[in-house]
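Usage example:
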Amino acid sequence: MKQTGDLNLVKKINKSIVLDRIRHDSPVSRARLAELTGLTKATVSSLVGELIESGLVDEIGAGESSGGRKPVMLLFNGTAGYAVGIDLGVDYILGVLTDLNGVIVEQHTMKHSNASVDAVIGDVIHSIRELIGRAPQSTYGIVGIGIGIPGISDEQGNVLFAPNLGWENVPLQQRIESELGIPVVIDNEANAGAVGEQQFDAGVGQNASYLVYVSIGSGIGTGIIIRGELFRGSSGFSGELGHVTIEQNGKPCRCGSSGCWELYASESALLEKARAVLPEDDVDIEALLRRAGDGDKRVIELFEQLGRSLGVGLVNIINAFNPELIVIGGRLAEAESWMLGPLTEVMERRSMPFPRAKLRVQFSGLGMKSTVLGACSLAIAKFFASTKVSVEG
Amino acid sequence: MKQTGDLNLVKKINKSIVLDRIRHDSPVSRARLAELTGLTKATVSSLVGELIESGLVDEIGAGESSGGRKPVMLLFNGTAGYAVGIDLGVDYILGVLTDLNGVIVEQHTMKHSNASVDAVIGDVIHSIRELIGRAPQSTYGIVGIGIGIPGISDEQGNVLFAPNLGWENVPLQQRIESELGIPVVIDNEANAGAVGEQQFDAGVGQNASYLVYVSIGSGIGTGIIIRGELFRGSSGFSGELGHVTIEQNGKPCRCGSSGCWELYASESALLEKARAVLPEDDVDIEALLRRAGDGDKRVIELFEQLGRSLGVGLVNIINAFNPELIVIGGRLAEAESWMLGPLTEVMERRSMPFPRAKLRVQFSGLGMKSTVLGACSLAIAKFFASTKVSVEG
DNA sequence: CTAAGTTTGTTTAATGAATTTACAAAGTCG
DNA sequence: CGACTTTGTAAATTCATTAAACAAACTTAG
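Running the assembly step on the lines above writes:
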């Protein structure tokens, strides 16, 4: 049954439009909001009144006059609540506490040994409790928890499959919600990263409605934003672009296929190639980055080669999704200076002029924090989408 | 400026919900509509009244009682208006006239020589005029014209690029609208095909919200439906999946890349391979289909090989878009019986269990008519989306 | 054949969110 | 200082939905 229209819906739509505008254009006056949104001054006045009542918006006094009465400036009250973001890695847990503006207030990192599903969940909960404990007092308290995982999940927050953790069908959301009594959102690590880059000032994808985030780790993960929203596919399994074939008779991949992109353009691919050139001891990412930084020609050539392989896959992304922005993240993003040139060269040679015309390719602006911040952002978005705030005030 | 909410919007939403339900569940009573939509009986009554007033809905008398007063059954009046659909090919124009239900009423085919842009547009207009001339009298007359083109277009209906026609920046929509004074929609041939398969009873994709239509012609075109809507990418250039690389150092392609899927899995690829095996005279699609039908092993092997190459690209589609349905269309769809086996074998071997679980792969249900019917459907959808019908009545 | 119960669809009054119009307050500027 | 602007609120109006009541039409049990 489709969502029907009624007065409640109207108010919800308008209130969320007004709140969004205040969030992104603070400080702003009621009169200006009326102009920006197309609503009448009276409507804006009334909605702003309720938002102030609910603690999400504050008046911060008069602004500059433009030839008449001074406007009363409004500010989004980012400290009306806090959210927890978790980046659940294969051997680490990175957690942050942010206010509703996404400003990081507290941080917590720990290793986990992946001994068992229960042990990991215990560690995650411990990490969250730690952060919650340090949260300042606020009107709404902890509004939600977002968790980025190295695997795929469904809408109910079940981890369907996370090969690198060895997880299958783990009801992660439900377990953490019942333990802590706070709304939880689960999403793929790359999806969260995409949201992070799109939503945060420090990210490179603000205002991008069509964005693909490519996370280079031991494999390649991708998060896809279409029309400003995460694209999840028909069963939550979209964007396994790391397993797009770029060499139909290439190396076999653990996914069952062969010649997958990630076999040529991931950390693993880099390390494999490095082993042929360097002493075993120097074959890890840190060391390679250091050597390249010191000007080691052999290592720089490895990164350039990786850049070219990345380029081949990026062209596939362009042809499939026609995004306005591709963001490259993960630890290897640090190798930007050596990869960008070859990558761009391959991309320009192999792609068609049209989709390329309006395309930007950038390396992550948030670095290792894109996933954890994106997770926070998902939690905050869920909070604002819940009717509690939007309508009932 | 985002769309704000007001009473007009509410009515538009509800009216279109009610009309959609009548369109798809005819015959249906007001009481049943109230149940189906979640609106109250009073609201449904009022909206249905206006729809009857506007000629789009008819009362067709009493239905079966279910233990009380007999319901008055409502029927969508498909003949309240007509739409023209055009499939503009490289050397032909296929046109149909359908009623608002998408039932074909008239048909018109012609060859065109592609002498010049103006000549082709002249032929298209001639074809449309011919069909309009044969349209029955109706309340709304010709509500719109949809045109599927072998190239890409923008939202204003400009043909940006159509290599096989040799067109660049042709304002097709504007030219036809100013000539005929009827709303025109332009879209890619494969996009139209996808809509056709999704919207029509005879298509295989009814109710599919995540569908990829693969049109095999001299190249490969694809139309992608996400959340029930055509996906166009950030600049109208999505879904050039024919140019996804499946062999990074493969044959060079006219697109600038090399190893593109369509070099291995299109009509051209088939014909090229056939030339190595058969006398030159027998190398055309019709002949190959005939020979395969006669049991020619060498030709059947060619089709099987094509099926395998198709499979490789389909796996890429699955990993990228995670659709619930892939529809294979174009003339080569006739070779289903020889291609399906090898195609499925490759697909199952190379794809991951998860996205494959809920996936169907089917050959076109509309055959050569998917594009032309999809084009009609786009025109009809535009008509219903226009406020004229939806609100002002 | 009648009385009771059901189902359908309309009517009427109430609700509530946005709009329109008017206006007061607080500025600027010559 | 007075004319003009701009900001924000208030009151009256509009209008689509809902809720409740009801009339009409029908079935079914006895």
